[in-house]
Amino acid sequence: MSSLAKVLIVEEIDLPGAEVYYIRNVVDNPKEIYEKLVEEVPWKQEEIFAYGKYHNQPRLSCFLGQVDKPYSYSGIVRIPEPMGETITMLTGIVQHVVDIVKPGHLKYTSTLGNRYRNGNDYIAQHSDSEDDMVANTMIASLSLNQERFFDFHDKETGKKVLRLELESGSLLLMGEGSQSLYTHGVPKQLTKNKERLNFTWRVMKENNKSKIKLDKQKLIDKLIDESK
Ligand SMILES: O=C(O)CCC(=O)C(=O)O
User: Fold this and answer.
1) Rounded to an integer, what distance in angstroms lies between the CA atom of residue 87 and that of residue 25?
2) Ligand 1 pocket member 198 (CB < 6 A)
3) Which of 125, 159, 170, 228 is most solvent-facing, going by the fewest CB within 10 Å?
4) Considering only CA atoms, which residue is closest to atom 2 of ligand 1?
5) pLDDT of residue 212
């Protein structure tokens, strides 16, 4: 069982117009947690819809949380699966840290997990859909095992303005301004060949089904397949 690290230093990241914090060593046993989550989480190779066709995402992923709050992005819709024991425990820790940094913050409903199998896996520059999330809530991003670069690009100029290296056991909090002014992404890093897990906790809106862009037959097939 994990516990919250005893001393937390909240580093304010200098990104003009955006509220971003970085906190190292939020959990005291990241390696053990990583190993549990590789086993416990229903990792999937998802497809995204881009340039008129479906492509495999360059990583594995999962979406866990409250079942009435699906999440749609990149032409796909994710129906949440239940949080297992370890993610439920981590949700408590993440919520606790966020309650300290941002008193009165809403309760997290969901977490999106990404599993980067090696340095070839990545997530392209993007910003997370604010329409699907409750306004003025923070995305809380926990990294486990392999450290990887995490880049912010200015949306207006398209230029890279900040590179962080997210360490195992660290939590990055992205608040107001971080999605509207910047994109973020984890580039390929061929020298970093250990596996990395990342979970981003979000406060999702009550019912965002109207945003579903996936074509209906694909969604029906997916639901039938998942219920087998
Ligand atoms: O892996 C990461 O650190 C970032 C993940 C991310 O940007 C996302 O899930 O939207």
Assistant:
1) 17
2) yes
3) 228
4) 198
5) 47
pTM: 0.89
- The secondary element (H helix, E strand) that includes residue 172 is strand 171-174
Q: What are the boundaries of each domain within the chain?
A: 10-227
CA dist list (Å): 55 to 35, 50, 52, 157: 28, 7, 10, 28
Q: Which atom of ligand 1 is nearest to the CA of 185?
A: 7
Helix (H) or strand (E) holding 74: none
Digit-coded pLDDT (tens) for 143-179: 999 999 999 999 999 999 999 999 999 999 999 999 9
Q: Which of 200, 201, 202, 204 to mutate to test the pocket of ligand 1 (most atoms within 8 A of CB)?
A: 200
How much is the pLDDT for 73?
75
Would you say the CB of residue 132 lies under 6 angstroms from ligand 1? Answer: no
Q: How far apart are CA 116 and CA 61, in angstroms?
A: 9
Q: Which atom of ligand 1 is nearest to the CA of 196?
A: 1
Fold of 10-227: Jelly Rolls (2.60.120)
Separation of CA 146 and ligand 1 centre (Å): 14
Average pLDDT over every residue of 76-89 = 91
